[in-house]
Amino acid sequence: MTRTRTRPERGRNVLGAALMLVHTGRAPTRSALTAELGVTRATAGAAAGELAALGLIRVDTHPTAPPTGTHGRPSHRLAVAPRGPVVLALQVHVDGYRAALVGLGGRVVDTRWGCVTVPQEPAAVIDAVVAAGADLLRATKLRCVGVGMAVPSAVSEPEGEALDAFNVAWSVGTPVSAELGAAVRRAGLEGPGGAPPPYFVGNDANLEALAEHRHGAGRDARHLLYVTTGHRGVGGALVLDGRLHTGSAGLALEVGHLTVDPAGRPCRCGGRGCLDVEADPLAFLQDAGRTPGPEPSLLRQAVDLLRQSDRDAGVRGAADLLADRLGLGLAGLVNILNPDRIVLGGLHSALLSAQPRRLHAVVAERSLWGRGVPLLPSGIGRAGLVGAAELAWQPVLDDPVTALEAAPA
């Protein structure tokens, strides 16, 4: 005899997909959830109810009428639960670290930062950033369901080792994942069931790209190319059909080591004239004839200087050179990857605002398909933290019930 499934059981089969739709803003109402999932209204309603019971989303009690001038029946609005669980998002960069609590929807609940010289051994700075996050959790009393950390290095999969953290002087093969796990345990963090929360580590540019694809300027792109420069160096990532392309071992898209000037500056990779040393904040400051100061960060100094390009010939020349170098690198990537959208972060985002015509022209002239590819500035702040949070949220997005099983209320 065939057993008839209950409404909650029918909804449970699509819980992960339903949560992802609410998380990325693609299902603001129950009717939209029904349409996006391609299921019956009863199944979508059961899924929404189950997610609400888990404390992940909120379902309005009373249905809301559709916008004026549109057709359709009133539908219950769906939103991320305002006091729902969070993940601890961490980021280590050249000038220090930042910790944040991030809820579903990419919502940064609270954040704390530290400006330090990152030591050659990572344990101290990882302990410091985890401790800052633990303080945030104690202050807010929110449930933590995972920890994600972004680092300025390619990270091997599945070992979780930093393989090229040149700018923070970590040795090749530094076990950042193991160090993070040890720091989580030392801090006494508790996740589902009272055990230490699951933890994850990823390359900062990869995670920024993931954040942009889910919540920012790259939303709904099929083949998204993301290129950025933060404090030092140039990073990039490719998101294909919603998933990061990380290669066979997590090391794909090291765009910073594309050569854009064969006679240029020596690069730590052994080459010369790489994007990493020709199109980052330090290179821009040097080309403009400025000596970088200890504060604020190199990125802040470079962005502030770029804003003077319309009234300072030396700065304008450096900005032109930066646009030419970046454009040449982007053109090569367009020829190889054929993206349908390019999003620029960090100093490159500011450059796009200051030099849109020149940058677009270089990409169009030096690539086969570049004329039709949109170049867009980053759409969200603190993309590295939001991306680190995405890493930690992924198990919940894949299987909410299993990930939250026995989690303390």
What's a concise summary of this model?
By secondary structure, the protein is an alpha/beta fold. It has helices at about 5-10, 15-25, 30-35, 40-55, 125-140, 175-185, 205-215, 275-280, 280-285, 300-305, 315-335, 345-355, 355-365, 385-400, 400-405, and strands at about 55-60, 80, 85-95, 95-100, 110-115, 145-150, 200-205, 225-230, 235-240, 245, 340-345, 375. It has 15 helices and twelve strands.
Envelope shape: globular
Fourth CATH level, the homologous superfamily of the largest domain: ATPase, nucleotide binding domain
CATH topology of the largest domain: Nucleotidyltransferase, domain 5
Q: Which structural class should the secondary elements be placed in?
A: alpha/beta
The SSE order reads HHHHEEEEEHEHEHEEEHHHHEHHEHH
Strand content: 15-25%
Could you give the order of strands across the largest sheet? 5-4-3-6-7
At CATH level 2, the architecture of the largest domain is 2-Layer Sandwich
Q: Class of the largest domain in CATH?
A: Alpha Beta
How many structural domains in the coordinates?
3
In DSSP terms, counting alpha (H) and pi (I) runs of 4 or more, how many helices? 15
- Give the helix level as a range of percent: 25-40%
Cα(first) to Cα(last) distance is: 38 Å
Query: Total number of β-strand segments?
Result: 12
What's the alpha carbon Rg, rounded to whole Å? Answer: 23 Å
User: Which residues form runs of ≥5 with pLDDT under 50?
Assistant: 1-10
| pLDDT averaged residue by residue | 90
Main sheet attributes: strand count, strand direction, barrel closure = 5 strands, mixed
